[in-house]
Amino acid sequence: MLEDKDINTLSRIMKTNGCLLDASTIIYLDKVDILELLCSNYKIKTIENVMKEICANSNHRLKKEETLCKIDITHPTSTLIENSSIYQENLQLMLSTNKRMSNLDSFLKCNSLSPTDFDLFLTGVKVNLPIFTEDKKIIKLCEKCKISFYNSLIALIVLTFDGLIDHSDAISIMFKINSIAWYSNKIFNSAFELLELVIKK
Predict the structure, then answer these.
(1) CA nearest neighbour of 124 among 188, 158, 74
(2) Tens-place pLDDT, residues 116-129
(3) Domains (ranges, CATH) in the chain?
(4) Distant-in-sequence, close-in-space partners of 110: CB < 8 Å, separation ≥ 6
């Protein structure tokens, strides 16, 4: 379970280096009206395919589409990044998790990831940024490869920790997010306990 000190660290990383959001996280946070607040106070990033996915699907129309302009598109194509020790170590860890995976193509096939999901995951690995995702396949992969990942509830807790959302509003918004995402009781209760801890401090 995350602790308030972990939220402090995550907040600092989000302010200095940033974080990656998948499409579902962007949509959920927009629906509960905190996406713009998040983008205004932290370095929020995503990949081009996620942005295209949101813009192309009429069911994914944001309440405040102009907020998309505040989300940076990350293109981790730098040779420096791909040759970095962090990237190489994570890549080897990824490939070593299954003997059938000798390269990235086999890795993608083995884990049944869509190209967009895989691009998001690999971008997080390359640039060493935490990933906010609601996708079970990405979550499973992050757990397997020891990559930091979080959900929309944690984004709300970070905002609350930094004093950007009133405590009573935070509780209300947490229930609103859960009504959209339908987290398991274990995930929701764990996040709610963390929110209570942050509020008490």
Answers:
(1) 74
(2) 888 888 888 888 89
(3) 4-57+64-200 (3.40.50.1010)
(4) 98, 100, 101
